[in-house]
Amino acid sequence: MKVAVIGGTGLIGSQVVRILNESGHEAVPHAQSTGVDVISGQGVEQAVTGADVVVNLTNSPTFDEASPAFFQTSMDNLLAASRKGGAGHFVILSIVGVDQVPRLDYYRAKVLQEDLLKAGPVPYSIVRATQFMEFMDAVLSWTADADAVRLPATPIQPIAAKDVADAVAEVAVGAPLNGMRNIGGPEVFKLDELGRITLSHKGDARTVVTDPTAGMFAAVEGDVLTDRNAHLAATRYTDWLA
Ligand SMILES: NC(=O)c1ccc[n+]([C@@H]2O[C@H](COP(=O)([O-])OP(=O)(O)OC[C@H]3O[C@@H](n4cnc5c(N)ncnc54)[C@H](OP(=O)(O)O)[C@@H]3O)[C@@H](O)[C@H]2O)c1
Question: How much distance in Å is there from the Cα of 95 to the middle of ligand 1?
């Protein structure tokens, strides 16, 4: 199958391209660095024309109130070009429980992206993943100082980017779900505990202070970011750290 992977140079996109090409498909990465800009529209039609499947793994440069405009414009451009270019399947990667956290601009932006896809002209699949293991360093950095990292006890089900890429590649070459598939890591941790495991593994002597008001995940109510009934990936967090 011919697959246009938009955002195909990113953390997930680059692995999806590799997995698809290794399994005999013809996947091509597209991004600003290859001359395609989903916001201005430059190169978008050429990128998707002739592709059987379009996989959109772009990400907004910021997680703030500018993020809805990124997803609105990029989806408008990509869906119009995909319809014109004859693609039969459009895939996006979203977040488990994303519609349950309306206080976060970025999560509202991802719900908007899902809604635009569902209402759009191309058969589709939405893969919703839990938080990437690779994302933990950024999460720790947001609320850290020289002595401590403050984190809420929000339940998190970390998944390795490689496992996410495997799932996205599998969905991309299947029939459109015209619906959603949830994928998650094999274990659920409280975020503060995950922080302690991570610092200890790195030999970082700072303490983790449990703080229900700290950082982005303070906006999350209960365990909405986890799904024990999701397709569970194999990689455990401590094995990934090792
Ligand atoms: N972080 C998580 O835990 C998590 C969980 C679930 C789902 N997700 C979702 O996973 C998706 C992929 O995330 P990721 O971490 O793989 O992203 P990433 O590493 O930041 O990669 C983003 C990709 O988008 C491209 N891009 C950005 N702006 C662009 C533009 N204007 N035009 C064309 N390409 C553009 C980038 O390349 P250039 O810079 O060269 O353009 C890059 O290839 C995101 O949509 C995110 O919402 C994330």
Answer: 13
For residue 157 and ligand 1, the question of a CB distance below 6 A is answered with no
Indicate if ligand 1 lies below 6 Å from the C-beta of 93: yes
Q: Could you count the other beta carbons within 10 Å of the beta carbon of residue 11?
A: 16
Q: What distance, in Å, lies between the first and last C-alpha atoms of the chain?
A: 36
Say if ligand 1 is within 6 A of residue 32 CB.
Answer: yes
Q: Residue 71 contacts by C-beta under 8 Å, 6 or more apart in sequence?
A: 60, 109, 110, 112, 113, 116
Residues 57, 94 contacting (CB under 8 angstroms): no
Nearest to 87 by CA among 120, 39, 112, 128: 120
Q: What value, to the nearest 5°, has the Cα angle with vertex 167 and ends 134 and 63?
A: 45
pLDDT (0 to 100) of residue 156: 98
State pLDDT tens for residues 22-37: 999 999 999 999 999 9
Instruction: Give the separation between CA 158 and CA 140, rounded to whole angstroms.
Output: 14
- H helix runs in the chain, sequence order: 11-22, 44-48, 67-85, 105-118, 136-142, 161-172, 191-202, 237-241
